[in-house]
Amino acid sequence: MDWNLRVFEERIPTKLLPIGTTEGADKICLAAGGDAPGGVFFWDASAQADGKQLFFIAEDFGAFVASLQADDLSPTIAIS
């Protein structure tokens, strides 16, 4: 998280804490203030500066985790 905060400090809106990274440079962020404190957002690193970069995902971290689903590309864990 330190690295993300330093590298994207000037690009990610204030009061957002980057808590995850997608396959690219996009970030999953937790709102630490603003209009939706505790909310989870997707920040699109490749969006044009004049376009929409921030997308609401979930009301809180618990709702975000509950919404995650496995698909055919998800890794499987063998429990023995």
Q: What is the element layout, followed by pairings?
A:
Layout: H1 2-7, E1 16-21, E2 27-31, E3 40-43, E4 54-58, H2 61-67
Antiparallel strand pairs: 1-2, 2-3, 3-4
Write up what this structure looks like.
There is one protein chain. This protein starts with a helix and ends in a 13-residue tail after the last helix. A 4-stranded antiparallel beta sheet has the order 1-2-3-4. The chain contains 2 helices and 4 strands, in the order H-E-E-E-E-H. The protein is an alpha+beta fold and 80 residues long. The protein has helices spanning 2-7, 61-67, and strands at residues 16-21, 27-31, 40-43, 54-58. It is 16% helix and 25% strand. A hairpin with a 5-residue loop joins strand 1 (16-21) and strand 2 (27-31). The relative contact order is 0.15.
Largest sheet: 4 strands, antiparallel
Q: What is the subunit organization of this protein? A: single chain
Q: Strands of the largest sheet, in order across it?
A: 1-2-3-4
Structural class: alpha+beta
Number of helices: 2
The portion of residues assigned to helices is 10-25%
Q: How big a fraction of the residues is strand? A: 25-35%
User: Quick check: average pLDDT?
Assistant: 85
Instruction: Give the beta-strand count.
Output: 4
Which H/E pattern describes the elements?
HEEEEH
Shape: globular
Low-confidence stretches: none
Rg, Å, rounded: 14 Å
Distance between the termini: 33 Å
Features of this protein?
alpha+beta; 25% strand; four-stranded antiparallel sheet; 80 residues
